[in-house]
Design a protein that fits this description.
- There is one protein chain.
- The chain is α/β, with parallel strands linked by helices.
- It has nine helices and 14 strands.
- Strand 2 and strand 3 form a beta hairpin.
């Protein structure tokens, strides 16, 4: 299932595998001026290819915000058929080349599937198209290889999964929560007119405020978790007090996402941690990728 919506010059695609005509766990790709930011999941690669006819929507460049399977799913097909150049964080490149280097839990195989291999190269500090120049911003936390793209003249931010809205009640155990918060504060400091996140739910009403609010909520949650832990509560007690029972996401993912994981990623991070976010992009130069 592929849904399409226009946001001025930007075309947004929400992609999901469908069951009985309904899509579940959407991911997103965005096209503008020959550039595709992320490519959705493997189950919709053919639909995405058909939505990008070379005479109207050429794809000369693909930039992946990170190497998770729901963001690189159409890389291989688009590169094979359209000859697109692919750019990503250096840590992402081995997974692009061999997606099976990244183990997929059963739910990930069911909802997004294994991507086809693709050949990538390190992202430069700037990605250039014919009419736009986008800055590559390291935003680790959700994954070590995460980057975002920012077009300063138009105020467009393509954030991938660096920003996920709502109040968290579950998480993966491999998240770096301190890096997530630092990345959010880095993005909130930008002059943003439109936020294009990995979920496909585009924000155009004070998106920087929304990002900052998310960072503040995460800081407050961390303070609560550390206070409860200091009072003698274990992870299960903290989860029960703050979130209640596990959500349906716990059962769908067979425990890969859980409230316990959310508590534990905070407990692994000192509440006063500071300093730059980890795993910066090592830029190969200042030129563009267009």
């Amino acid at each position: 299932m592929l849904e399409e919506r226009q946001y001025g010059p930007v075309v947004g695609f929400r992609a999901a595998r469908s069951f009985l005509g309904r899509g579940y766990y959407f991911t997103a790709a965005y096209w503008v001026d020959g550039l595709l930011v992320d490519s959705g999941c493997s189950f919709t690669d053919g639909e995405l290819l058909r939505a990008l006819p070379p005479d109207r929507r050429p794809v000369t460049t693909i930039v992946n915000t990170h190497c998770h399977e729901d963001h690189i799913g159409a890389n291989g097909l688009l590169q094979q058929r359209l000859g697109s150049r692919i750019h990503a964080h250096p840590l992402a490149l081995p997974v692009l080349d061999n997606p099976h280097l990244q183990p997929l839990q059963p739910y990930r195989r069911v909802f997004w599937g294994w991507p086809r291999p693709s050949r990538g190269e390190p992202a430069n500090e700037w990605i250039e198209t014919e009419h736009h120049r986008l800055r590559v911003i390291p935003t680790p936390g959700h994954s070590p290889d995460h980057i975002a793209l920012y077009e300063p003249q138009r105020g467009w931010l393509f954030s991938g999964d660096a920003y996920i809205g709502g109040r968290d009640k579950a998480a993966r155990g491999d998240y770096d929560v301190r890096s997530i918060i630092r990345s959010l504060r880095t993005l909130a400091a930008l002059d943003i007119t439109a936020l294009f996140p990995g979920s496909g739910t585009v924000r155009q009403n004070h998106p920087a405020d929304e990002i900052l609010r998310k960072a503040d909520q995460m800081e407050e949650l961390g303070a609560q978790i550390h206070a409860l832990h200091a009072s003698g509560c274990d992870s299960t007690e903290i989860r029960n007090r703050l979130f209640g029972r596990e959500t349906s996401l716990y059962f769908v993912t067979l425990g890969h996402f859980s409230g316990i994981h959310l508590v534990e990623i905070y407990l692994r991070a000192a509440p006063d941690s500071s300093g730059p976010a980890s795993t910066p992009v090592r830029f190969s130069g200042g030129g563009g990728a267009g």
